[in-house]
Write a structure and sequence with these properties.
Helix content: under 10%
Largest sheet: 4 strands, antiparallel
Oligomer: single chain
CATH class: Mainly Beta
CATH architecture: 7 Propeller
Distance between the termini: 51 Å
Strand order of the largest sheet: 1-28-27-26
CATH superfamily: YVTN repeat-like/Quinoprotein amine dehydrogenase
Order of helices and strands: HEEEEEEEEEEEEEEEEEEEEEEEEEEEE
């Protein structure tokens, strides 16, 4: 009888020890939430779209008007600009130290000196852009065909084009030969063979989410986090077969997303002024961990992998009576704002560019 009690107590204590790490992790998450850790405002002119953090080069790139503004990623202080680049987004090859922006023509520059190397003629209407590490190529995406123009990131030459069968928004690479691209107008994710430069399949969202815009990718566990407009939902699916695992609610007006493998968290930025953080507890278990309040129209985001910071951007008009003498002299893009369908953050006239850094 005594021996039975000892075994019972020992078993209880062992169970407590097994459960303790999980409880500690949950407590740590609750006591150390995400928050805005720094912000900055810069007066200027022109609309904005995608923001891009070069974590290796410690630069932050933001297209605005007809130039790409460049900031120090650690201090958020301006360090220069790429002129004559009416772009939507930026991609950087960390090996060749070449930068590219999705403009027409595409501008290629030296990321160390910010000097323009060349311009590259492309077809379509450049929008999103991505550096693909397996082939060391840059993908320039367009809502009109060809939907993707592929550029050798070292030579700056066009190596091919791909018709994706829909309007691409955001893409992610597994680094092993596959590229996944959200097709906003088809409610699908296209799978691309980056060596063969062809679409090998599409994954249907099956009514679980519409208007997919942002994309996060857990390469280790082969999971796609597809962030959708209507309904405002994150659809989690298997990247190998397109099987839908679950859905979770996000804020309204999503236009960007990502995944941080260091924390096993997916995230999406929304125009309603929210940043949604989704915790991957296991490859089959997920929860909305936190919703961070940012600012209205802060739709696009990027990840500083060194510090684990998520950066969002928006624009807002200056206060009444404020001086706009420091505003950039470039004219605003046609139709006021530069964003897709004329709905991206703020007007094209003089106003503040807000950079918001979220971290723990």
């Amino acid at each position: 009888m005594l021996r039975s009690r000892v075994l019972f107590i020992t078993g209880v204590l062992a169970s407590c020890n097994i459960l303790q790490p999980t409880a500690t992790a949950a407590t740590a998450s609750a006591t150390n939430p995400y928050k805005i850790v720094s912000t900055t405002q810069t007066m200027g002119t022109g609309g904005i779209d995608y923001v891009y953090a070069d974590s290796d080069g410690r630069r932050l790139y933001i297209p605005r008007g007809n130039q790409v503004l460049v900031f120090d990623l650690d201090t958020l202080k301006p360090v220069g600009a790429i002129a004559n680049a009416r772009a939507r987004g930026v991609a950087v090859d960390p090996n060749s130290h070449h930068g590219f922006c999705s403009s027409s023509p595409v501008v290629m520059w030296d990321t160390k000196t910010l000097e323009t190397i060349k311009t590259i003629d492309v077809q379509g209407r450049p929008d999103g852009i991505l550096y693909e590490p397996a082939t060391q190529r840059v993908y320039v995406f367009s809502h009109s065909q060809p939907n993707a123009t592929i550029i050798d990131s070292k030579a700056g030459s066009v190596v091919g084009t791909i018709d994706l069968g829909g309007a691409p928004e955001q893409a992610a690479s597994d680094g092993k030969g596959h590229l996944y691209v959200t097709l906003e107008d088809k409610d699908k994710v296209a799978v691309v063979d980056v060596k063969g430069l062809k679409v090998t399949g599409t994954y249907d969202l099956a009514g679980k989410g519409g208007g997919p815009a942002g994309l996060g990718f857990d390469a280790k566990n082969h999971l796609l986090f597809v962030f959708c407009h209507d309904p405002a939902t994150a659809v989690v699916m298997n990247s190998e077969d397109g099987k839908i695992i679950t859905t979770l609610p996000i804020g309204r007006g999503v236009d960007g997303g990502g995944f941080n493998p260091s924390t096993m968290e997916a995230f999406s930025s929304q125009g309603d002024g929210t940043l949604t953080i989704i915790k991957e507890q296991s490859p089959t278990s997920f929860e909305v961990e936190q919703t961070v309040q940012t600012k209205p129209r802060a739709k696009t985001c990027t990840l500083d992998t060194k510090n684990g910071h998520i950066i969002v951007i928006t624009t807002e008009p200056p206060p009444a009576g404020a001086s706009t003498g420091d505003a950039a002299t470039s004219p605003p893009p046609a139709g006021g704002d530069q964003g897709k369908k004329g709905k991206k953050g703020g007007g094209g006239g003089p106003g503040f560019l807000d950079i918001i850094v979220v971290g723990r």
